Amino acid sequence: MEIFSVTPEEFQSNWKPKFFVIFAGQALSLFGSGLVQFALVWYLTQQTGSATILATATLVAMLPQIFLGPFVGALVDRWNRRLMMIAADGAIALATLVLAGLFWAGWVQVWHIYVILLIRSLGGTFHWPAMSASTALMVPKEHLARVAGMQQTLHGLVSMVAPPTGAVLLGLMTTQGVLAIDVVTAVFAILPLVWIAIPQPVRLQEEQGGQRTSYWQDLKEGFTYVAAWPGLLGILVMAVLINFLLTPTSSLMPLLVTKHFGLGALELGLTDTLWGVGMIAGGALLGVWGGFRRRIVTTLLGIIGIGIGIVMTGLAPANLFWLALVGMAVAGLMGPIANGPLHAILQATVRPEMQGRVMSLINSAAIAMTPLSLAVAGPVSDAVGIRTWYVFGGVFCLLMGVAAFFVPAIMNVENNHSSTPTLEPSVPTASVLD
């Protein structure tokens, strides 16, 4: 097998050693990114104490994914995904190294951090769809949901472990030292990609002897593909609404804990901890179980479960804080159950050469709701009460999950995809399926 050329069948014939070496490298890089995020947030908090600066940093980190995601997806489907991931990880590491140098020299300013956050986010905007789309070619279809569960578990672990680890490290070393750790973890992410070939999709037009389409034709094809798939369009609408309703619940949690329950920082930390424990457990459960045969059923039950958890949190009386903790644990548990199978559905059904565009479109649409939802949630919660947002958002999420069971387009999403012809089994994408 050549190092830079491999078909899905060749890769999947012995996929576990190769895939999990790549997975381990990506896991280390994700942990390093968690350390950087904590270190920079803590630095901005200590140096400025400004909520506006912190909010601006968050917004800056979202901008590339919101505005460039749909355009990047077409490039992911045109370019070599392995090289794209290497370049993205390398750019992120280089930007972090530059920032570490600024800290070391004592020259760092807030705008420097904004620029580096923007570059890191831009790298992630390329890396995530490239890795997600490549997973569909590396992992056999029957294992995709389990791998998605493992990825959810990983994110849960990083969200729990990175902040306290970052706090300990900042007590032992300088900020630039913590940033340097991320550069090292990025190297561990890049090295497997240098030596392990990743399957590339065969473009349908080329396989059928047609001419290569232009970038703008590819971009238009991505939008048309999503719009022509009723089930996928329905899921996209659900994702947008769920993100709009539930994203503010994490931002409002400090106020819920302090104003409604009358508690402090320790109890606020417990809400994050229980959510993270639930997420790890949900990812582990999905990794072992794999979900129902019809993945959409698992996803919808997960959405219903998230709604139940959020409602429990919002309805918990002031003297029953433990009920809110149970609600957060339930929401965390059901997150991977909802997201993992859905990701596997997209990897299994979307044509391999279309996955970069589809993944990026869905991700950008969902993330785009975050600034809008945060802008709306604050004034609404001030007017009608913080708990109202939790109860309304949770109930709406629950009802939307139930209603989706009665929408044929969504229930049959794995079978009613675009009428655009797919590749024949003889093409090196047969073993492809988030």
**So how many helices?**
16
User: How large is the share of residues in beta strands?
Assistant: under 5%
Q: Helical percent range?
A: over 70%
Order of helices and strands: HHHHHHHHHHHHHHHH
Domains counted in the coordinates: how many? 2
Biggest beta-sheet profile: none
Categorize the overall geometry: globular
C-alpha termini separation: 28 Å
Q: Structural class, please?
A: mainly alpha
Indicate the CATH class of the largest domain. Mainly Alpha
Please, what is the average pLDDT?
84
Question: What is the gist of this entry?
Answer:
The protein is mainly alpha-helical and 434 residues long. The chain is 80% helix and 0% strand. The chain has helices at residues 8-12, 15-48, 51-78, 81-105, 110-138, 144-172, 175-195, 204-207, 215-227, 230-260, 265-289, 295-315, 321-349, 355-384, 386-404, 408-411.
What does this structure look like?
The chain is mainly α and 434 residues long. It has 2 domains: 8-202, MFS general substrate transporter like domains (Growth Hormone, Chain: A), CATH 1.20.1250; 227-411, MFS general substrate transporter like domains (Growth Hormone, Chain: A, Up-down Bundle). The protein contains 16 helices and no strands. Helix 2 (15-48) runs antiparallel to helix 7.
What are the main properties of this structure?
Growth Hormone, Chain: A; 80% helix; globular; 2 domains; 434 residues; mainly alpha
Helix and strand layout, with pairings?
Blueprint (H helix, E strand, L loop, with lengths): L7 H5 L2 H34 L2 H28 L2 H25 L4 H29 L5 H29 L2 H21 L8 H4 L7 H13 L2 H31 L4 H25 L5 H21 L5 H29 L5 H30 L1 H19 L3 H4 L23
